[in-house]
Amino acid sequence: MKNPLIKPGDNPDITKERLAGTFDIRQMGSFLYGGDEVLQRRTKILEFVKSIPELHDPFPVDFMTREERVENVARKVVAMTNYVDFIDTSDFFGEGMYFQRLIMRRDLHPLSLHFVMFLPTIQGQGEDDQLDEWLSLVAARGIIGTYAQTELGHGTNLKNLETTATYDPKTEEFVLHSPTITSAKWWPGALGKSSNYAVVVAQLYTQGVCRGPHPFIVQIRDLETHKPLKGIRVGDIGPKFGFNSADNGFLLFDNYRIPRQNMLMRYSKVEKNGTFIAPKHSKLSYGTMVFVRSIMVKDQATFLAEAVCIAIRYSAIRRQGEIEPGAGEVQILDYQTQQFRLFPQLARAFAFMFAAYEIRDLHMKVSEQLTEGNVDLLPEIHALSSGLKAVITWEAAQGIEQCRLACGGHGYSLASAFPDIYTFAVAGCTYEGENIVLLLQMARFLMKAAEEVRGGKARLAAICEYLTKPNSLHSRFTSCSDYSDADIIHDFEHIARKQVFRAYDVLKRHRRETSAEEGWNRASIELCKASRAHVRLYLVRTFLEKVATAKDASIRAPLTDLTRLYAFDLITTSLGEFLKDGFISDAQSDEIRQGIYRCLQRLRPNAVSLVDSWDFDDFELHSVLGRRDGNVYPALLEWAQMSQLNKTEVLPTFEKYLGPMMKESRSKL
Amino acid sequence: MKNPLIKPGDNPDITKERLAGTFDIRQMGSFLYGGDEVLQRRTKILEFVKSIPELHDPFPVDFMTREERVENVARKVVAMTNYVDFIDTSDFFGEGMYFQRLIMRRDLHPLSLHFVMFLPTIQGQGEDDQLDEWLSLVAARGIIGTYAQTELGHGTNLKNLETTATYDPKTEEFVLHSPTITSAKWWPGALGKSSNYAVVVAQLYTQGVCRGPHPFIVQIRDLETHKPLKGIRVGDIGPKFGFNSADNGFLLFDNYRIPRQNMLMRYSKVEKNGTFIAPKHSKLSYGTMVFVRSIMVKDQATFLAEAVCIAIRYSAIRRQGEIEPGAGEVQILDYQTQQFRLFPQLARAFAFMFAAYEIRDLHMKVSEQLTEGNVDLLPEIHALSSGLKAVITWEAAQGIEQCRLACGGHGYSLASAFPDIYTFAVAGCTYEGENIVLLLQMARFLMKAAEEVRGGKARLAAICEYLTKPNSLHSRFTSCSDYSDADIIHDFEHIARKQVFRAYDVLKRHRRETSAEEGWNRASIELCKASRAHVRLYLVRTFLEKVATAKDASIRAPLTDLTRLYAFDLITTSLGEFLKDGFISDAQSDEIRQGIYRCLQRLRPNAVSLVDSWDFDDFELHSVLGRRDGNVYPALLEWAQMSQLNKTEVLPTFEKYLGPMMKESRSKL
Fold first, then answer.
1. Which end of chain B has fewer surrounding CB within 10 Å, N or C?
2. Exactly one of B172, B432, B434, B545 is catalytic; which is it?
């Protein structure tokens, strides 16, 4: 069962690990990514990108100034989009994301929002004439657009956006205006310097009446000179925790006029004389949000897996301390505490990845149903995707930090790639819906479901069906080895159901005592807990069901260990919920803890092979600690040579400050 | 009870909060920092630093390149040390840290290790002649030194350091050599570019025998030219997650010779002919380590408090969403979920700060006892300081990230200061002893104590005395309002005792089944849990005891709410431990959850006043979100103007890449 990553000259410790693996990593990779052809396409795309120097960084971005980084991605994105025909662009979830990740590393670029928000918004909200006018221009990159909705003082609550678009029937124009500082558009990617167009969301006023927020296509910079147009104030919002190749921007309007035709009019319309025509049917944009979130879940799973890959490979070659005296320093992967830090993250990465594929499939199913006018599944899937995004982004971020910390000092260096991965991943907790807001969104659905169940008229899809089942008194756990998939699901269903109805009862009580709204606020911690319990049940079930489909025993065995570790770890980290009402006994909880230790021991020999299965090339990983060959130390020294500070032997600080200080002090002694 | 921070022109929302506070923030600050005079000295030091432009940044460091940051701190540190007579340098814990923080923000500088490691090592390890030769030169800053111990391949385990110092009796010199890449000294602060000297720890060889690691004073750069000396290879290790003003460095020796007199010979000696004289008594350096950790605990408490201060002030002025429809957007601080994110961090900040003072006092007590030859308390305090460092650094880091996330998108901008605070604080999990290593160090002490208790011959100081108490069957909890300090301590003692003896039993069993060493490894997760439970008990007790000394009821009341929130939060986050064996009942656990919600409500009106009490001036906080005046939005817009990318209206990316791409595309349509 030789691992194809083994090569001559590799660090012997990592080769030893690969030789110890009990399964074929290509087979595991194929199971993970959905088939051999997918793996083969990955290899082809990788080779292609490696073969085109235009798509590479001239030197590691870690050593670039912000200006250099911004310039580097602008150069690369033009090349990337020139070469885009090499991939199947209809498969953004698979090929698109992989291609972009290989070229852009973990950063954004001037066209990030152009293709993900600007183009789709025009497609979705433009009427036919507008599509004719704009689509080919936008698709061909004849202009660069972004999506400007969030304002300096307004995020989640769109109703309160302050930017106004007032219709002037005399000139048949909208006047865009930013009445306050808080109304400045703030955060849109590529708005600061790169874009010359934006879809701007503003409060529409016609005939003296506010008609609520609507989208407008707005030119912000001159096509020839790229200077901001008169009435426009635009710029970069400054450096951030991560994403520093991106020019997230601000935008202020001073009575800036655009033609009437620039309002996107597929749904609402404003006629020449200013008459407002309200939309006939509400917009069904849920589907796109579900798709975007399936992308995010996959992204986060990948980030976490990259971090675990780096940490486990490094832990295999790092030797430190002795367990048995005189036996020499051990691989730090042999320490139980190190395994306990890393292996649950490995389990999580698999669980999240399988959930990403599952959500993508659900999205496709829902999209099909939608074309037939069937919207039954939509609210449930939409709620689920909100909760999943919230739970996964947070757990991935925490897991990445655990991996970094497990690598000691070297984890803190940019050479490890952890800081890059963390700052990118953790941003996911905030964008595309702040996590707490999303958990509460999911809770609204769960409370409606609970209400229906209590009323005896629930019509729930498979995901929430457990809410209709009768309560259980006891866990089905007898021993770790006999704890079947069905038993585990049964137990997690119990915990989720209990918390959903607990939150429901708390909510009802508070609503009786206060008001519907204040009652919601006072129940909100319980509501978030309910959403989390629901999502965790979903993740456990999806993980178990997916692993059960693995035909080959050699890959099913380590995956099963991962499912157990995942479930046992979830149980012990929310042990209070499981012990309550005697659902599990003290003795059972002790056995589950023991079960974790046994899972760690069983996974230990396959740890490197499991991360190898994710098929991360060094070109993608960009991590000195996570190198395939395990030859970390010479590479760290080489990386350090590139430091900005090493360009000169003696820094100006010596002549200017430190030298005179020392000289003067010595002269006085 | 007017808050002195209220000023005309402030954001009305923050003024409203300050008017609602029920206590005098100066009185609270005095209780926190240990007296009115301390607060007055803080004000004097602040005014002094504000009055000296040399000590300021020319513009926010957020907008500087790494080279500019390095130069900026070199300039400031010379000025800072020139002005050091303004403060009482014997009070590093108080005045020294405050003075340095005001000037250096959250970063290191070229003399960070010079004063904290280089000078103290010479003082502690040098014999009298060496003190005469070096001390005044070092103290006067005639040279800049650092401390080079950690190597590229070797951190915690000093025994395995690879750098050699071989004595050559012919020339009466030591030959320093780096035999491998992994032997490169790696990480020491200011080693890369600033220092011209270092204390280097190397394996001493004399007369063909290795005598273990010893410290040597080594010149690495020429005093006049600052060029590295022949046989020395030195440089910066490259950019990091944080600390990017610091030139952490690497150092390699190629048979580099230093005089025999440069070995620090207070304990071990090498005579002219190469005879090695072993130390007469072991080195008692525990005391210094305890002091360094008390500093770290205070630092971490301050970081966490800064983060909470920023998040709470911002949450008071940020309005978003409605609770009651039509009542207007609410301050986000009114959301229960926001309170639940922030207030437990506020409680933690107070708990950690009180623990820092307590540990400093213990250190002083132990130091006194040491001068009388009494070492009784030392092992216990040393163990405690290890565990405290581990628990506090991790919880502070997590808390800071919670604060950042609670501020949404703006928390992600460097303008918030959160990224700066987080990357600095979280590094504390790794330096000065990696956290897991430290938890296990503390566990060694606890296992010895448990062994003694089981053997009936324990002689433990107050901190561990609870281990000798009989087990309790039930919690003393009756209701949240009746849960006295003594009851809470009783219950946390029970949990800690149970886990310590559980770990002890697991350890014994594994040792019987395997070996002493492998048994330790297999019990190590349980051992870490025991250390954490012990530290949490210590933190709860210290917090309660300190608050009980508050004489004024107006400050004792909100502090008592914080102690309850702290304890209840700890109970619910490790609910499994409390529910086990029926120590608390399900009904009690529900009441404790309710107790948390009530604490949040009670603390809400005092939230801003509580963070105001920490006496963080805007000059210290460097946070646009956390401004005293609450006028965040105009300041964010102003801050963004300084972005590197806003220096020119049109970036070169347009001419070079994006412009031609768009033009070409448009020409083809």
1. C
2. B432
Residue A283 pLDDT more than 60? no
Residue B322 has a pLDDT of: 83
Contacts of A578 in chain B (CB under 8 A): 576
Amino acid at B22: T
Strands annotated E in A108-254 = 145-148, 164-168, 173-177, 185-186, 197-206, 209-219, 232-236, 249-253
For the residues B409-436, what does the mean pLDDT come to?
97
Q: What is the DSSP string of B516-577?
A: HHHHHHHTHHHHHHHHHHHHHHHHHHHHHHHHHT---HHHHHHHHHHHHHHHHHHHHHTHHH
Strands (E), B331-422: none
Query: What's the rounded mean pLDDT across residues B249-264?
Result: 98
Tens-place pLDDT, residues B300-339: 999 999 999 999 999 999 999 888 888 889 999 999 999 9
Rounded Cα distance, B554 and A645, in Å: 54
Best mutation target, B72, B75, B183, B193, to test chain A (most A CBs within 10 A): B193
Please report residues of A whose CB lies closer than 8 A to that of B320.
154-157, 160
Q: Please choose, from the candidates A362, A360, A368, the residue with its C-alpha nearest in 3D space to the C-alpha of residue A91.
A: A360
Confidence band of A663 (pLDDT split at 50, 70, 90):
very high
**Taking CB atoms and an 8 Å limit, are A414 and B241 in contact across chains?**
yes
Mean pLDDT of the region B115-132: 94
Closest CA to B580 of B486, B491, B505, B510: B491
Q: What is the pLDDT of residues A389-440, one digit of tens each?
A: 999 999 999 999 999 999 999 999 999 999 999 999 999 999 999 999 999 9
Neighbours of B286 (CB within 10 A): 18
Mean pLDDT of A314-339: 92
Tally of CB atoms within 10 A around B22: 12
Task: Look at A524 and B336 and tell me if their CB atoms are within 8 Å.
Answer: yes
Question: To the nearest whole percent, how much of chain B has pLDDT over 90?
Answer: 90
**Residue A322: closest CA among B379, B158, B435:** B158
Query: A326 at the B interface (CB within 8 A)?
Result: no
3-state secondary structure B48-74: HHHHCHHHCCCCCHHHCCHHHHHHHHH
Beta pairing, strands B164-168 & B173-177: antiparallel
Task: For A588-628, give the secondary structure using H, E and C.
Answer: HHHHHHHHHHHHHHHHHHHHHHHHHCCCCCHHHHCCCCCCC
Is the model's pLDDT at A286 over the cut of 80? no
| Neighbour count for residue A207 (Cβ, 10 Å) | 12
Residue owning tokens 């049940």: A537
Is B635 in the A-facing interface, judged by CB distances under 8 Å? no
Complete domains list, chain A, with CATH: 141-279 (2.40.110.10), 287-433 (1.20.140.10)
Q: Return the closest-CA partner of residue B564 out of B572, B575, B553.
A: B572
Q: How far is B524 from chain A (nearest CA, A)?
A: 6
pLDDT in the model for residue A282: 58
| Chain A residues close to B63, C-beta within 8 Å | 238-239
Range in A4-8, A470-474, B501-505, B569-573 the model is least confident about: A470-474
Cβ count near A648 (within 10 Å): 10
* Crossing angle (nearest 10°) for helices B286-317 and B418-427: 160
Contact B194 A658 (CB under 8 A): yes
Residues at the binding site of A are 150, 189
Residues of chain B with C-beta less than 8 angstroms from the C-beta of A237: 413, 640, 643
> Averaged over B413-436, what is the pLDDT?
97
Residue in A74, A157, A250 closest to B658 by CB: A74
Euclidean distance between CA atoms A360 and A382, whole angstroms: 12
pTM above threshold 0.90: yes
